[in-house]
Amino acid sequence: MHMAEREPRPSATRTSTRPRPPKPAEAARRACEQLDSLIVHETEGVSGVTRDEDGWVVSVDVLEVARIPDTTSLLATYEVHIDQRGELQEYRRVRRYRRGAADDC
Question: Which InterPro entries did the record assign (predicted)?
Answer without folding.
Answer: Gas-vesicle_GvpO (IPR008634)
